[in-house]
Amino acid sequence: MTEAATALYDIPGPRTRRRHRLYGALATALLLALLLALLAWILYLLFDTGQFTYTKWAPFAYKGIQELLLRGLGNTLKAFAMAAVLSLALGGLLATGRLSDHRPVRWLATVVVEFFRAMPVLVMIFFIFVALKVQPLPALVAGLTLYNGSVLAEVFRSGVLSVERGQGEAAFALGMRKTQVMSYVLVPQAVRAMLPAIISQLVVALKDTSLGYLITYEEFLHAGKLIASNLDYDLPFIPVVMVISPIYIGMCMLLSWFAGWVARREQRSPRTEAVEVAPAEPGTLLP
Question: Residue 58 above 80 pLDDT?
């Protein structure tokens, strides 16, 4: 069957294809021109307000300022690592409770998840820091863990429930216990569906570590705030933003790349690849 016979519309001829390519080139050029004009306008405003003067950029040449930024970045990564590990553990625990066959356990886990999901992160951090008299780092990690762990619990639960129901029923029919069904059948299949949402929530946790500067935790944004509020350097707020923002964006992109790498590696895993089956051979005939 020819291509023309299977098309749902008239196949464009040479003139139409040239006209479409011309339209595409013009649209691309127009969008590029608008983007360059916007960039030029932003640069003009920055130069016009004196954001690129030597006085505003001088702090970044000092070793003490560089050490302050590196120390703040290290504190941010430390808080994120602790919050990420604890959030995953809490999310798995709460998801297990929500999937439990025991009604009291399921109700208790549901109340905990819904409460901490509805509570603003900043309120929890302030409550733990002010009311419970906890140090800044544990207060920040606890607030991030309670919120992100509750959100991840719903991600885990929905991921497990998204697996085809027949998978679990077949495993139970083979005599497997519920723990074995979850560990060997449902969770491994649900990981692929859950991975994008898990990484997205971890990116949220990474960005929320910036709330630590409100409770005097010396993280990356707190270090930038100290530099930006310095009158000796003419309040270099915009230069600080231009230095800190790409680093935050780079960390989030690195986390997303890591998630993609894990997903590709999981697809190449021998446990998920198809197993070759030997061709059928004639057997012994029964009498």
Answer: yes
- Neighbour tally for 125: CB within 10 Å: 26
3-state secondary structure of 119: coil
> What gap in Å lies between CA 10 and CA 269, rounded to an integer?
45
φ/ψ region of 177 (left if φ > 0, alpha if ψ in -120 to 50, else beta) reads beta
Checking 235-243 for CB contacts under 8 A at 24+ apart, the result is 236/55, 236/56, 236/57, 236/59, 238/46, 238/49, 238/51, 238/56, 239/51, 239/56, 239/57, 239/60, 243/60, 243/69
Q: For the residues of 81-106, what is the DSSP string, one character each?
A: HHHHHHHHHHHHHHHHHHT-SSHHHH
What is the pLDDT, as a whole number, of residue 281? Answer: 60
Say yes or no to pLDDT of 272 above 60. Answer: no
pTM of the model: 0.76
DSSP labels for 157-192? HHHHHTS-HHHHHHHHHTT--HHHHIIIIIHHHHHH
Q: Reduce the DSSP state of residue 234 to 3 states and report it.
A: coil
Q: What is the C-alpha R_g of the chain?
A: 28
